[in-house]
Amino acid sequence: MNRELITTQDGSKTLLISDLNETYHSKHGALQEAKHVFIDHGLNLVSDYEINILELGFGTGLNVLVTIDEYLRNISNQKINYFGVEKYPIFFSEAAELCYAELFSDAITKDLALQIHELPWEATHELVPQFSLTKLKKDFFDLKNTALPPIDLVYFDCFGARVQPDLWELELLEIVAFKMKSGALLTTYSSKGSVRRTLKDLGFDVEKKPGPPGKREMINAWKK
Description:
There is one protein chain. By secondary structure, the protein is an alpha/beta fold. The protein has one domain (26-223): Rossmann fold, CATH 3.40.50. It is built from 6 helices and 11 strands. The strands form 2 sheets. It has an 8-stranded mixed sheet, with helices on both faces. Strands 1-2-3 form a 3-stranded antiparallel sheet, with helices on one face. A hairpin with a 5-residue loop joins β1 and β2 (13-17). α1 packs across α2 (62-74) and α2 packs antiparallel against α4 (107-118). The protein is globular, with a radius of gyration of 16 Å. The model has no long low-confidence stretch (mean pLDDT 97).
């Protein structure tokens, strides 16, 4: 998989898979997108004391970094267990070139920007008290046979349907839905009509929300 570094419109960097013309984050702003979709319309809407987060896929690690940064700055009374799934991890050298430490003011988040890529897979690591990260190196479809606690919040951040349409269809969405507890939230940058319909068929209350820069709409879906 041939990846190259690019700078997005908010100054943050992401990776481009040149063969597919597909980026890991929005060209309109990687950091802005992560905060808008997964914090403003994700983490900040879940109020349980203990929150189990499932991310598809872990990629550059930006989503876990914005999550722990929000946790350190604004959340003091919750416990977070974060599960990031990725079949094709990026190289440490690529993580270093992304310079994600520069995006955050908190010293702990800065230190973790590269550390998270050095942590062993298939093991749970306490990044700070009450916040753990478990990286799972596997295909998303293998989640069907993966033991997880009931999931409260899903960051559905797969590559777009243009290049990987099977990741946005019933089979995977059904697997993810089965891992979620009643009342859990799935948030994604996508607003694809077929995805909304499939989620409704799976028993979700689906809401269209204003999208991040460059996208008119996105999806929040609450499992009944």
